[in-house]
Design a protein that fits this description.
This protein is α/β, with parallel strands linked by helices and 273 residues long. It has eleven helices and ten strands.
Length: 273
């Protein structure tokens, strides 16, 4: 493995500094010498697409991804079609901003049928692939930890994400490797190798013990049990050399000023990633 990735590969996933608006995050990245940013759609909508595009360009930033599309399963066909249309809007936003990856958080089951919900996920992705290809946007399937199966995603292992990507069979569809979600997987090494050139993003944070908040339970790199350097070695050996997003939902981090949070994040990134 090469040495520490350094600031050139560091990308601020915007949720990590939730206390910042999008313009504040853009300026904060520029102030701290960070060249990559991953934008969340709710922050984008607050600011405005045109304004965000111009501000990001003027700050000299590149975008590692737009978060998020997905949420495909629903109780009725009409609802599922509405969600597909929202994903097309997300693709439009990613293309306009210049983010070539749309992260897919695939969504929970509408009822108790997980098998059917996973079919809806694959069908939903298949439905948006032609439009994504037309717009030049890649779709990154992000498996979420099994504790989120009931409320966020029925795609919970890298094997499941790889299966969907391979079944669809286009370079437009790949996977996101998020350390917090997949560190525990006994098949992790094999599934990262299998993903290979289909890896569209690598996200880091840490798993502290105990987890006290399902949503805001991620911790700073180095505070938990994840071997992040080994996971980076695995994704790099598989062929991924792109930006590394720091994605941390943590109230203690959000209680700091954005600049204090950024300083801590960059320090931990250098030491533990």
């Amino acid at each position: 493995m090469s040495g520490a990735p350094g600031i050139k590969r560091f990308s601020l996933n915007q949720i990590t500094t939730e206390q910042w608006t999008l313009p504040e995050a853009i300026e904060g990245c520029a102030r701290h010498g960070v060249g990559w940013l991953a934008v969340w759609r709710h922050k984008l909508h607050e600011y405005g697409l045109k304004e965000a595009k111009e501000h990001i360009r003027d700050a000299g930033l590149s975008l590692s991804s737009l978060c998020r599309g997905g949420m495909f399963p629903a109780a009725s066909q009409q609802e599922r079609l509405q969600r597909i249309e929202d994903n097309r809007r997300a693709i439009d936003e990613a293309a306009e901003l210049g983010a070539n990856v749309l992260v897919l958080v695939c969504g929970p089951a509408a009822g108790k049928d997980l098998v059917e919900a996973r079919k809806h996920v694959q069908a939903g992705i298949e439905a948006i692939v032609p439009y994504a290809e037309q717009c030049g946007i890649k779709l990154g399937i992000e498996p979420l930890h099994p504790m989120y199966a009931a409320d966020r995603s029925v795609i919970n292992t890298l094997r499941q994400a790889n299966d969907i990507a391979e079944t669809i069979g286009t370079m437009q569809v790949g996977v996101i490797v998020d350390a917090f979600h997949v560190w525990w997987d006994p098949e992790l090494d094999q599934q990262i190798e299998r993903a290979g050139r289909h890896i569209l993003g690598f996200h880091v944070s840490d798993w502290n013990v105990p987890i006290t908040d399902m949503f805001k339970g991620r911790s700073l790199m180095g505070d938990g049990v994840i071997d992040l350097k080994n996971m980076r070695r695995l994704v790099e050996q598989a062929g991924y050399k792109g930006p590394i997003e720091v994605e941390i939902m943590n109230q203690s981090l959000w209680n700091l000023s954005g600049d204090e949070a950024m300083a801590k994040i960059i320090e931990r990134f250098d030491a533990h990633v």
